[in-house]
Structures are given as structure tokens and as C-alpha cells.
């Protein structure tokens, strides 16, 4: 039998094994077990910070800013912060899936603006309640687009957490009409769901700062017209708006990072912490908490804990090669 020469010309021997062809990075059902606890802590931190951001936004509007102006300041500061990060850490900005980045920026920016527009037309509790229906739309979108199927336990947990949010925001007595403010609140939920679905798909290929940069650009695009309106803002209003930009920047990075390890349904469940945290932060500016609201907080937290313990599907550990074949980045992009 004739010996087969090696490709490198170094001698004779058996032909080298063919290299596996890796398909394009996609969202996989596999998630390293050690990554989930970290992602949940990240979303916990994001929820706390997003809640603080909502209270600061309220203080900014009390200081003379409109909702659109708060949105503009938030995204200006966010864009500056992430640009500084790129300058300090060259190579961090690595856009790969430009179409999805565009989707993340457009949907996220519109969702943020619509939420503030909704607050301008209807009570903040009602607007926040409508906006926080986004997990329902996110689960549906992730099911259709990413084929992420929630477990029965996760669905139950999401219903429990949503019921808790309803009690927190309205004390069980919120009434919803059908005006422009309500429409903006619902559309903010739909576009927000599309945004987080884009994040989940992007986390297989793009890092959190790059994804946030796309979000900041989208937010700037939709909120820039508000920069040309009259500004009659107090010093406290400017300080609160600056706080919104700083806190929301940190919260967005934590949330985006977490979506690399959790499915959309479970991540959406954890994001129900935001309205709960927002209400608890509001205690620091003189708002009171009643028994119904306290029950809502406990119910929401119970739903999150229940979903985290029982909501995920068991998965077998995969080798490094199997992870690559499934399209999972070997290391943080």
C-alpha cells in the first residue's frame, strides 16, 4: 500500500482528520451550568439599578425635563460612556452581526421613548404596568424566532411574578383605558420584547458593550428631536438626569451580559424585578408601602425564586468541541 504524504510535506503518514465545519453562531439551547447563577446575579443587579433609574427619571421630570429630554440625556451619556470604554480597551468594539445590531438599536430606542411618552399621558403606575407586559411578547417572539420553549414551571413563575408586579404598581386597583398613552405603553412592551430577543440572538456573536452601543445610537436617533425643545430645568433636574444616564448604562451592560447565559423566558422573568425595585426605591423619596403592595413584592419575588429553581430544562454537559459545533463562543466575545 502506498503511503500517503502529509500535507505539510514533513513525511509520510495517514492523512489528517478533516477539520469540523462550524456553522454560524446562533443561539443554542446549551448554557453552561456555572454561567446561570452568575447571569441571575447580573439580572438581579440590573433590576435594582433599573428601578433606581426610574425613580431618578421621575425626579428629573419634577425638575423640569420632559420624558423625551430625559431619554435624550440618558442616551447621550450612555453613548459617551461606552465610547470611553472602547477608547480605554481597544478592540472591545467588535460588531459582527450588523443586521441584528441595527434591530437591537431601533427596537430598544423606540421602546424607551414610547415608555416615557406613555408616562407623559397616563399615570406612571399604569404606564409601567403596560410596559412590563413585555415578557409575554418576549416569550412568544423567542418561541417563534429562537425556538426557546419555556417549561411549565417557568410559565407558572412568570404568571406569579406578573401578578406580583400588578399588585405592586397599582395596589390591585389599576384601571387601563384605551387612549394614546395606553397605546404607547403597549407598543413599548412589544418593541421592548423585540429588543431583548435581538439581544439574546446577538449574545452568541457580539459582546455586551458593542450591543449597548447599538442601543445608544438607536435611542439618540429617536430622542434627538426633543433636544430642540425648550429646556427649563432646575439643577436638581439635571443632576437626576445625569444619574439616569449613569445608572441605566451600568444596568444595560449587566442585563446584556446576562442574556448570553439565560433564555429569553427566564431572563424576562428576572426583569420583573425592575418595577418591584422601582417601587422600593421610591420609598426613599417619601412614598409609602401598603399591605397589598407588600404582598405584591413577596409574590413577585416568590415567582422569581420558583422559576429560577425549577424553570430551566436539564441539559447535558457538552465538550468544548460540541459547544463549538453548536455555535457557542468558546470564550467571551
Q: Could you please describe the fold and organization of this structure?
A:
The chain is mainly α. It has one domain. It is 66% helix and 0% strand. It is built from 13 helices and no strands. α2 packs antiparallel against α8, α2 packs across α9 and α5 runs antiparallel to α10. The radius of gyration is 22 Å and the shape is globular.
Topology diagram in text:
Blueprint: H1 35-62, H2 67-88, H3 98-121, H4 124-131, H5 134-146, H6 152-170, H7 180-202, H8 208-223, H9 235-258, H10 264-270, H11 273-282, H12 291-310, H13 320-325
Level of helix content?
Answer: 55-70%
Number of domains: 1
What is the averaged pLDDT score? 76
**End-to-end C-alpha gap:** 47 Å
Note the run of SSEs as H and E: HHHHHHHHHHHHH
Low-confidence stretches are 3-9, 18-34, 314-333
**Could you tell me the number of beta strands?**
0
Rg from alpha-carbon coordinates: 22 Å
Q: Largest sheet, described in full?
A: none
Highlighted features:
333 residues; mainly alpha; globular; disordered C terminus
Q: What's the gist of this structure?
A:
Helix content is 66%, strand content 0%.
